[in-house]
Design a protein that fits this description.
The chain is mainly alpha-helical. Helices cover 52% and strands 6% of the residues.
Length: 186
Amino acid sequence: MNLKVHNLIEKEILDLDKLKHSYLTFIKVHIETQNPDNKLIRSFIDRWFAYKKQGNFLTKGNIERTFNRSDISPNNLPEVTKDCLLNMHFISKNALNAINSKSDMQLVKDHAVPVKIISEMLKQVNCPSEASIEKLLLNFYRLGVLTHEEDKTLNQLNLKSAMPNDWDGKNVFARYERANIRKSDI
C-alpha cells in the first residue's frame, strides 16, 4: 500500500472517530439542557454505536445503517444487514433460526436495556463528560435481535421500556431472561 492510500485510510478512521465523539457531545448537551425528547437520545446512542462498531454498521458512504421494524424480514435480508444482525450483542435462538431458514417471520432490533432506562441513568451522572457517558454506554448499550412474537412477550410483561422490578442494575439481558427468551449460541 502506498503512502497516499495509507494516509487516506488513517484520515477516514480519524474522521469516523470524530463522528463517534460528536454523538457523545450531543448526548452531553442533551443531558445538560434537560431535553425530555428520548427519541433524540435513541438517535444519538444508535449513531454513537454505529460509528464505534463501524464495518457494516456504516454504509459505503460512512452513514450509519438503520434497522426499522418493517425491513427486517429474513426472507429478503441483504447480506450487509444479515452481517449486522449477527454481530449484535444478543440474538435469540428463534431469531437465528428465522435468519438461517430465510423465514418470512418479522424480526425486531431491540435495546436490551431500554433507551428510557439508559436516558434515566445518563441523567444521574454528576457533571457528565463524554468519557463518563461513553463508559456508561459501554456497560449498558446492548442490541438484541428478537422475533416479533418475542417482542410482543416483552410488551405483555410490561418490559417494553422498563427493566424487571428486581433488576440488579448489572445484567443487561434481564428483560430477555424474564421473558424466557433464549440466546443463540453464535
